[in-house]
Amino acid sequence: MKHQIGDIIGDRFRITEKLGEGNVTTTFAAIDEAQDQTVAIKSLSFSDVKDWKTLELFEREAKTLKQLDHPQIPNYVDYLQIDTPNGDRELCIVQELAEGKSLHQLKCEGWQPSEAEVKSIAEEVLNVLSYIHNLKPPIIHRDIKPHNIIRQKNGKIVLVDFDAIQDRLLGGTTIVGTYGYMAPEQYQGRAQPTSDLYGLGATVLYLLTGKDTAQFFQEKSKIDVSSEISLSPTFANWLEGMLEPAIKNRFNNAQDALEAMQASYEVARPFNSDITLKRTKNSLDIVIPPTGITLLNLMKIGMVILISFVSFPFVVKAILIAIDGAVILALLILFFPGLFFLNGIHFVAQRINWHFRKIILSFNHNNFILQEEWRILGFKYTKYQEGKTSNLKYIKNTEEYYFNYNNNIIKNNSLMLNNGMQVFYLATCRSYLERKWLKEQINDFISNIN
């Protein structure tokens, strides 16, 4: 039955606009004259149905919508069965109208969302998915895509079009979804709650690039997000987790995916590194364990100690001569042996500082705390420094040069954290990749705050 603008459906709903048309359904905007509210009516005529599976899905959608109660899912209003004069029957699902534009429509109009905007949208959709996946039995949407996510004028995100939903207990092997947004298992008719996560990941990819997953070169069907888009490392890792082709490699559920954005999670570190980094939306915690003394460094320290002890008798003799009153002669004797001795002490102390120091660095929106800890031969010494996170200017790789005991120049690679008044040195004697990774993570966190 073809409705026109102004028609009354069910003696209550006056059609005001045709919103869209699918393969067998038509959606209208209407006024609920009983409640004085705007609604959306999805209509299905028996005469347009080619198989009973279509009717089953439509009735399942109505049944499911009736039990849903979430602020980001349009409210169920009514379900109508109308017998027409020509002997046809029409089914209508009536819902609250989600006013706004779909994410697909916004992209087509030139919208270029920032990473922060996309994260916010993903978080809101994950909240909805967590709700429907935790129902008894769980509900799988099966068609998460930009067309089915509405952004309202106030920025609120609404999930619509539940015509592809699957009741997990009823199961089913029907292939339902949209090419470019369907998880691999959906092509086999085996949708899981994590299939919706893949659809959301594909939606996020589209928002950032304007392309769906089918338009990306995929080796073994896995998309290398980092090589395709310039994103913060943590968000790129999260998106790759959403787009994992194998179910077992994806996030376990929507709540896990949500917590990966909002709560603590460990960021992948360079291979074989023992540095740990945990980052949340509001905090960053880094632990840099002591490297310990390698055999080569131990040999260097032994050599320095040996040379220092060779010069030690000259230092003692100079002190004795100074006691006898020959101060100038004592200074002349002490100069070179004393220089060797002091440089040796400095070298050993420096190596102990570098290799036995544990650093615990914690940032939040307001403050940062740097804790340095040394444990040597059962003795422990701890030093605390703190400051305002907003005062941090940058962190960069730096090379400092020192003269060792025989006046050769040696180089110390570190990370230098500057807060405008103090300089803090981190990750000394760590590899270039480790320093580069830490620098990127800290700078990204600081820039998001500032």
UniProtKB/TrEMBL annotation:
<dbReference type="InterPro" id="IPR000719">
    <property type="entry name" value="Prot_kinase_dom"/>
</dbReference>
<keyword id="KW-0723">Serine/threonine-protein kinase</keyword>
<dbReference type="GO" id="GO:0005524">
    <property type="term" value="F:ATP binding"/>
</dbReference>
<keyword id="KW-1133">Transmembrane helix</keyword>
<keyword id="KW-0418">Kinase</keyword>
<keyword id="KW-0808">Transferase</keyword>
<feature type="transmembrane region" description="Helical">
    <location>
        <begin position="301"/>
        <end position="323"/>
    </location>
</feature>
<dbReference type="GO" id="GO:0004674">
    <property type="term" value="F:protein serine/threonine kinase activity"/>
</dbReference>
<keyword id="KW-0472">Membrane</keyword>
<dbReference type="InterPro" id="IPR011009">
    <property type="entry name" value="Kinase-like_dom_sf"/>
</dbReference>
<dbReference type="Pfam" id="PF00069">
    <property type="entry name" value="Pkinase"/>
</dbReference>
<keyword id="KW-0067">ATP-binding</keyword>
<feature type="transmembrane region" description="Helical">
    <location>
        <begin position="329"/>
        <end position="349"/>
    </location>
</feature>
<feature type="domain" description="Protein kinase">
    <location>
        <begin position="13"/>
        <end position="272"/>
    </location>
</feature>
<keyword id="KW-0812">Transmembrane</keyword>
<keyword id="KW-0547">Nucleotide-binding</keyword>
<protein>
    <recommendedName>
        <fullName>non-specific serine/threonine protein kinase</fullName>
        <ecNumber>2.7.11.1</ecNumber>
    </recommendedName>
</protein>
